Amino acid sequence: xxxxxxxxxxxxxxxxxxxxxxxxxxxxxxxxxxxxxxxxxxxxxxxxxxxxxxxxxxxxxxxxxxxxxxxxxxxxxxxxxxxxxxxxxxxxxxxxxxxxxxxxxxxxxxxxxxxxxxxxxxxxxxxxxxxxxxxxxxxxxxxxxxxxxxxxxxxxxxxxxxxxxxxxxxxxxxxxxxxxxxxxxxxxxxxxxxxxxxxxxxxxxxxxxxxxxxxxxxxxxxxxxxxxxxxxxxxxxxxxxxxxxxxxxxxxxxxxxxxxxxxxxxxxxxxxxxxxxxxxxxxxxxxxxxxxxxxxxxxxxxxxxxxxxxxxxxxxxxxxxxxxxxxxxxxxxxxxxxxxxxxxxxxxxxxxxxxxxxxxxxxxxxxxxxxxxxxxxxxxxxxxxxxxxxxxxxxxxxxxxxxxxxxxxxxxxxxxxxxxxxxxxxxxxxxxxxxxxxxxxxxxxxxxxxxxxxxxxxxxxxxxxxxxxxxxxxxxxxxxxxxxxxxxxxxxxxxxxxxxxxxxxxxxxxxxxxxxxxxxxxxxxxxxxxxxxxxxxxxxxxxxxxxxxxxxx
Length: 553
Description:
Elements: H1 2-20, H2 28-38, H3 46-50, H4 60-66, E1 83-85, E2 103-105, H5 108-116, H6 120-127, E3 132-137, H7 151-156, E4 162-167, H8 169-186, E5 193-198, H9 205-222, E6 227-233, H10 244-252, E7 261-262, H11 268-273, E8 277-282, E9 298-304, E10 315-318, H12 324-335, H13 343-356, H14 367-375, H15 384-397, H16 404-410, E11 412-415, H17 424-429, E12 433-438, H18 442-448, H19 453-463, E13 468-476, E14 482-490, H20 493-505, E15 512-515, E16 524-529, H21 535-548
Parallel strand pairs: 5-6, 5-8, 6-7, 8-9, 9-10, 12-13
Antiparallel strand pairs: 1-2, 3-4, 11-12, 13-14, 14-16, 15-16
Helix pairs in contact: 9-12, 9-13, 10-15, 12-13, 13-15
């Protein structure tokens, strides 16, 4: 009798505590399951009793007697943690003949999450994410890179054969976003606007990093059901193999390359045709010539000069710092500073800042560029900021295994004439212009293939149908001083004279000093630039020459 009384007292205590937890409306589904379970005795009249039953009187021993599942009780699996839920019910409301209407669920939190939100389980997975380290055989050899001394390198050391990559929550979220957007694009972005973020067609480290990160930032902040915000890398996927520095960076940051979208993998004109394209122009003042037809779809210009060509655009962010990644890192620091703690996430932004500012040594580098680089210093890891920059520069300019065409095509940009021409004279008025960027001196370029260098350069020029080919060289001499040189190859001596006349008028921006190079004809000249000049300055001058070339004939 005493044991029966004690059992009833225990059951009463459990019932009272259980009833109190059912006051929340989220437990309506669980309540229906319990009402169904208590009426299991009559299978034919089960649904009729479901609406009339209001409570359940059952002890823990009753559950064991039903033999629905063998349970071993432990502190982790106590009766108060057991929740009953119906299964095996079809959409019509009938119970399946092959399944039991009762199951025992041991994880109360998972059940609650399933009733609150269908995405709650994914959110829990992100919360429980733990950073890990991946140790693998090094895919990219960096033994030839002279890494400057740093505290991180001294204590951690570096292995020429093994590579350690940290898997952090920030990069996990970024990869999850990239994969989801890739799936949306593969499905045709149904019922949404394609909100494409695109940078210049010279896809260097800074441009690719800022394109990915700004698209992710917009997706995190806008939270719009009408927009599918996608980063579009403005180069063909096949060209990624020729960008060793960029490829090394993305892999060292643990970025999923298969989820990235390149310009040849998406037809932006299709979305523009049906009015569902919204374009964000990033890190440039003018849309690349190959996408000129999409200019009406531009809704935002980010990190540009004070004046751009699109008067209808309301959202404009004027360039105040050298690197676009600086501005994006600042935006993340304002809304979610903890996301910058991940090493891979911060490395991608830090690399963009270091490359854009020449390792923070550019004369135009601002205090904010330096501050953000310090904030993201965890991304440098064991290499330190100087070591990370040297690896990127080495990988970017390592051309030891490339032929002349591959060297010139590695970082190549082309401007085509806007109008169609049939006569030879009209083609001369508006020549196609190409610019290749290399990481060696012009003398080293010409000596790399001995006597065949000049014919191969001319062959590449004809292959691309260029009236002018400008090879821009940037390298450090033996005294660790940065130098800039250009090689100009024109299809005629007349065109060469017109270009030199234009550049002399712009001597304040691009002061040139002629360099004698044996074996060159009048249509090919080499010059040294007397001051530190960015490639963007040279690009702007070439664009101005192209638009004003009619005035020189």
